[in-house]
Specification:
The protein is α/β, with parallel strands linked by helices. It is built from 12 helices and 12 strands. β10, α11 and β11 form a beta-alpha-beta unit. The relative contact order is 0.13. The structure holds 2-keto-D-gluconic acid (8YV).
Length: 320
Amino acid sequence: MPHKQTRIGVTRRLPKEIELRMSELFDVTYHEADTALDAPELAAMMADIDVLVPTVTDRLDRQLIEQAGPRLKLIANFGNGTDNIDIDAAHERGIIVSNTPSVLTGDTADMAMALILALPRRLVEGDRIMHQEGAFTGWSPNWMLGRRLAGKTLGIVGMGRIGQAIARRAAAFDIKVVYHNRNRLHPDIEAQCGASYFDNLDRMLREVDIVSLNCPHTPATYHLLSARRLALLQPHAIVVNTSRGEVIDEDALADRLTSGDIGGAALDVFEREPAINPRLRAFDNVILLPHMSSATMEGRQSMGEKVIINIQSWADGHRP
Ligand code: 8YV
């Protein structure tokens, strides 16, 4: 299909350079207000376009996909995770779904590592104190004591690109890395990451000081960190989640924080995003971030470029 005749609907505002380039190449409709579209608004946008460019804030369920206009042939997701899209329903309608993996690996791993450092060293708590006039009255030996990272064990759940990038970073802090994944990695990659495999997640959880969640959200990983599994953790262990909120049973986590049976949690994603379980706000040993692990200017630019390449490949008759 000639690129200029390819009609595209973009649900959110993207980096300016990406919007300009898309408009040069294709026939693009933007949702001008940068707000999440509801189902009727998405249906309206999907009525007469060839390609939809959604983001994590668009829930493209079966019902919506089934009522899409006949032109829709590609959903070019601006993002890595595709759990917001019913891929089976799309395929049944002959719609291809593409995403933007790789380009946000390093940024997401950096943020996970930042949280792995920040929580045990009480970085956010310290900053909050300094923002209050008069709260810091001077140094003392027992003031703001955290936990040392070197020698601790990090358990990575989901050892894809991001999990591996976290493992490589953790090694520089003398952290021992173990991982659980559906499939064991090739021994060469395990060696590169300095990570040892646990085929049994429960056994791994009992041994770690830090858990980092890096698996996708699928029916199999929904509430993977359930009340039962959270209870396997050592009472000082911390949980870092930069994957998807649904992987943790948030209420069960709040229960453990309330009883003091867990060391803390650093969460960038939430079960009912953008809503946050209000119980999580009550704890000093909880860091809450607004889904910003991949939020770098460079990353967003690369994601946009990848979306454009995916659309071009499709329009040229290839499979993105
Ligand atoms: C993105 C993400 O910002 O790509 C993902 O899976 O979770 C985020 O880092 C978001 O998806 C954009 O749609």
